[in-house]
Amino acid sequence: MAEFEYIDKPEQLNAFLQKAQHSEWISLDTEFIREKTYYPRLCLIQLATADDLVCIDPLNIEDLSAFFTWLQNPKMLKVFHAAWQDLEILYHLSGQVPAPIFDTQIAAAVLGLGDQLGYARLVEELLGVQLDKSQSRTDWARRPLTHQQLDYAIDDVRYLRQIYPLLKQRLQETGRLNWLNKPFERLTEASEYTPDPWLSWERVKGVQLLKPRQLAVLRELCAWREELAIQKDLPRRWLLTDEVLVDMARMKNRDLHDFADIRGLSTEQIARYGQGWLELIRRAQALPAEEWPDLPRRRKLDAELSLVADLLMVIVNQQALAHNISATMLANRVQIEKMLTEGRTQLSDDWRGSLVNDLFAHILSGRACVRVQDQSLKIDA
């Protein structure tokens, strides 16, 4: 098994970056913790090039600017598995999203290997290797890390380096490589990783229990919580739990003493923040009805349109079967119903749409029909 270099000094990092500056592609993974912070705390960077395996210790190297500059090389492809969290932390620390990227989890789904396939499952599927899982609960912020812990971490790129060429070859053979362009481009947009406090209310547990006017209150309080969590770099739940926010949004009397009746609020919190909460609540309550937020409601289809949705789902399943991919990767019932209620005939403008858009348009316009022949579904367009 190939050994790796542990890099915990600036001169080591600079030497590696110089050596790897002309790499066409690299595989990359990170280890981090975020139990006690709003933003993830980067604890380890694992990298593989064609020639080298390295673990970079960001806790012992204060200035990573040279690394982030190197990572922005547009001629170097960055390969991840389930890239979102890695890209989030890299964007938070550097202000830029590395690009271009390749996500092996998305590629595996497009090839029909499974939806949201875990890294260990993918390694076993493609390489026949069972990964050691004994270090999955490691506290990556502790030092020193043992060789066993580091070997566990480097496996995340050791085998990723082998998996990427295999997936790329299969994608080329099946003509699906360009299917990934838009999903990968979306992952490199900074807006994906920029928190919007004003929209944070939409993720609150129990939000569906509130009326629009109460949602206006919840929106104000959630934005306050999100902004304070960012400012203090604390988990949002440490400031106020979702349950407390929902109870606050349902308050009727809007008096400082009413907070004392809410389970989960301390007297210290009320003394410190209560007056500000009241101002937010009153401001939200004063909004005109047209400015109240509302949850997207799933419009119920009438009986005839529901049958049309059934038919389009048959098309989805037929195309998924024909291309050996999961039907859920292609479209679900909610997406189909939304498309119909909005009067659209196009599912999307990415690879999913390329498989069904024309068929949907032909079916909906009456230019195509579905029939059964020899126990197989046929679409005449």
How would you describe this protein?
The chain is of the alpha/beta class. It is 47% helix and 11% strand. It has 3 domains: 5-193, Nucleotidyltransferase, domain 5; 197-291, DNA polymerase, domain 1 (Orthogonal Bundle), CATH 1.10.150; 303-380, DNA polymerase, domain 1 (Orthogonal Bundle). It is built from 16 helices and 8 strands. Helix 13 (303-322) packs across helix 15.
Terminal-residue CA separation: 55 Å
Strand content: 5-15%
The value of Rg in angstroms is 25 Å
Biggest sheet record:
6 strands, mixed
CATH class of the largest domain: Alpha Beta
Strand order of the largest sheet: 1-4-3-2-5-6
Q: What class do helices, strands and sheet pairing give?
A: alpha/beta
Q: Which topology of the largest domain does CATH recognise?
A: Nucleotidyltransferase, domain 5
Mean of all residue-level pLDDT scores: 93
CATH superfamily of the largest domain: Ribonuclease H-like superfamily/Ribonuclease H
Question: How many discrete structural domains?
Answer: 3
Provide the low-confidence segments as ranges: none
Given the structure, what is the number of helices?
16
**Extended strand count:** 8
Overall shape = flat
Please state the second-level CATH architecture of the largest domain.
Answer: 2-Layer Sandwich
Helix content: 40-55%
Helix and strand pattern? EHEEEHEHEHHHHHHHHHHHHHEE
